[in-house]
Automatic annotation (TrEMBL), chains A, B:
PANTHER family: BETA-ALA-HIS DIPEPTIDASE, CARNOSINE DIPEPTIDASE 2, ISOFORM A. Coiled coil: none annotated. Keywords: Hydrolase, Metal-binding, Protease. The keyword Hydrolase applies. It comes from Phanerochaete sordida. Residues 213-371 form the Peptidase M20 dimerisation domain. Belongs to the peptidase M20A family. One of its GO terms (biological process) is proteolysis. It holds the Pfam family M20_dimer. One of its GO terms (molecular function) is peptidase activity. It comes from the Eukaryota. This is CNDP dipeptidase.
Amino acid sequence: MVAPKQFLDYVEANSTRFIDRLAEAVAIPSISGDASRRNDVFKMAAWVKAELEKFGVKTDSIPLGKQHIEGQVLDLPPAIVGRIGDDPKKKTILIYGHFDVQPANVSDGWNTDPFKLHFDKETGKMFGRGSTDDKGPIMGWLNVLEAHHKQGLPLPVNLRFCFEGMEESGSEGLDDFIAAEAKKGASGWFGGVDAVCISDNYWLNDRTPALTYGLRGLAYFNIVISGPGADLHSGIFGGAVFEPMNALVALLGKLVTQDGRILIPGVYDGISAADADELQIYENLDYSVADLEAAAGGHIAVSQDKATVIMARMRNPSLSIHGIEGAFSGVGAKTVIPANVGGKFSLRLVPPQQPDDIRAKVEKYLHEEFAKLNTRCSMKIEYLHGGIPWVADHKHWNYEAAKIATESVYRKSPDFTREGGSIPVTLTFAENLGVNVLLLPMGRGDDGAHSTNEKLDVSNYIQGTKLLGSYLYEVAEITGTKA
Amino acid sequence: MVAPKQFLDYVEANSTRFIDRLAEAVAIPSISGDASRRNDVFKMAAWVKAELEKFGVKTDSIPLGKQHIEGQVLDLPPAIVGRIGDDPKKKTILIYGHFDVQPANVSDGWNTDPFKLHFDKETGKMFGRGSTDDKGPIMGWLNVLEAHHKQGLPLPVNLRFCFEGMEESGSEGLDDFIAAEAKKGASGWFGGVDAVCISDNYWLNDRTPALTYGLRGLAYFNIVISGPGADLHSGIFGGAVFEPMNALVALLGKLVTQDGRILIPGVYDGISAADADELQIYENLDYSVADLEAAAGGHIAVSQDKATVIMARMRNPSLSIHGIEGAFSGVGAKTVIPANVGGKFSLRLVPPQQPDDIRAKVEKYLHEEFAKLNTRCSMKIEYLHGGIPWVADHKHWNYEAAKIATESVYRKSPDFTREGGSIPVTLTFAENLGVNVLLLPMGRGDDGAHSTNEKLDVSNYIQGTKLLGSYLYEVAEITGTKA
Ligand SMILES: [Zn+2]
Ligand SMILES: [Zn+2]
Ligand SMILES: [Zn+2]
Ligand SMILES: [Zn+2]
């Protein structure tokens, strides 16, 4: 069912007010990673709660406990949950978003005040911290609610909301809340949810809408090599002792080929080659090697073949070396032999890779390779962090609805993408609620989330609002399991 | 000629006052690397000048120009030069020392105030910043001067002094002054100098006096690898692009074997094997693999053979990897692909290696190895710093005199050592004056120069004062070229 003209017209007619709404949200510097801004995150939570209630949503502010940060103990910002509609004949969609933002200072290189939305009418770009990540999408949902509430239009589905204020700081406290609510079943805030929709990622490029159905997992390691009791002077000891840095670079050099083939035995076990269907998805994507190199800022693609490069970033595992802890990292020419050095690297994982299994393989390989070095330094392997990969069924009605809605709003088929990184809450919902999760991005690939001069194109905001609403109508219409 | 009993007895009788002299010097926090302490370096210069004059030395305070430090323009501390004795029948010895010190704070881990000499009578250790590096040795010379002046004893040689206040900060300004004075010939401050004596290094251990006749040179490099336009997120780009860190660890892994054999072709050219005479020196040293490992704080010696380990630290070149600039170096698990990374390493050089030649060989090798990587990242090699190695004729009368003096004071033959690191002013004197330079250490290997709880043993201070004086008498006596 195409969204009613009444809804679409309202969005067009009220676009200036919708922009004002975004400006109001951007003006609250709700930086979750900065203890001195914690009050602003609370203020933002209250603002979101009040907006939801204006449009008939029943809400609650859920305390998530305490946080230890910068030597202080602070209250975590609450999760704002909401529900509207309880018609058992309608599907129920859970909407997730986050109202906290990354830090931003004019001195970082912003052209305008990051907390004052700057709408450049010539380019159609609205600059401001949080414009695209993730206040724009939350405003999109508020706009949809307003359009229905003000016009007395019934919503086509029951809606549940879960908006958080700690996403940019590891979503502290949220997982426990989601798990606890899920256990409550029908009586919990997420009772009866048929599918989840998360708008917190981006199109692959600046041209074509996208639906995202996969995220890579992670296994993060630190190889710690020790030798001397303290840092030594290379003038005095150089040549006479086994040096930890020397062992470390030898090991780091054995992890992956220059063009990205991981050298750890067994790491590719079980990963199937892409079949014709899957290859077709990559071939269909509106994305080129030139797009990748433009985004990377250098002619450094591992291949000139489009599908190869796309699979490398979306559906194949990868291994990156991030840096060294404990060695000399300053400018200048210090002649130190560092005593304890840690080499940080991580693998991005894809199904069926599991972090625990990868961890065992990495550790076995490193112990073998370390033994071959015949150094008298010692090695310890730290496992810092892990996350399982996620792939959704992109033929599920949740995706089908989003696809039809995209085609109706943008007159263009969406790219079906997988993200190279992780959005951990996706897995939390998928695992705890056992329903399909859709990643439905509003912004473009060049929006610069987390970067200076973050922006959202006004067309993505207004068309995006129409898309979110249209998606609900298509969900209502489409054949699919009603849980 | 053994030093007269009158001199030796005076030193014994006045040891408490000599300790007070050292305490007075230590109390002036003449930290050359700290702009806020610059006045104290000037104060220390004036103090040294006044002491010299008390004992009949004609002095001058030589301005060395300006320094740019921490955003300020400061006057460099002056060099204090002095002369006493102009007897053409006597040899003329130039004494060098530095009256500036390294920074020190109780909070670094000092057990006592670093700028208040703490004499622990039980252990005989005098703790304080500069106690051994290099105020102790300067006080030693002042003590020698006092003993002669107060007793009306003629000095056995003509003396020239060059004391500086910027040694711990690269001896800024001093090289130019030495070169200019040397050009003046007989009319300059260093006219007629027959040999140089520098007390600014340490015994190999805590048991046996040493004479040092060699210093390794240095060639310091930074391999800079660039790729992306800015740091990338490994979730988004990992696997799809060539990564600079990956190329860097590959190159750093090709520089040197774990046990220290340098892999750069031609780097060992011209370095002769140690002959029987030289091996004898190493066999004679009061030093063991256990001493090395105790000093290093770990069982990490590259060999269990004494001579092999000693040659590795003194007379063979070495290569150490110091660290990485531009990569992630913090704690935690940041998933960055660093865009520009610099790998810092340096070679310690021995005769006949020359930094320029080594540089050419290193650069050629790295370019060849980089080409083999087939990465699309780019490489640039920065040469940060170089210094030529130095070896003196340890059979020169200057060393012979020091050896006899050591045997008479300590009743023990000195270790003939070469230092693994550099003392740049040694080369400046050797090259500009064209005379033999002797490194005659006062302190022990465990004194902890530059470290917390720096100390000088009182016996090294008092016996050391006797040694400096005795050395002058042996110089006067010994057969040798009078320039
Ligand atoms: Zn976000
Ligand atoms: Zn974000
Ligand atoms: Zn020194
Ligand atoms: Zn020093």
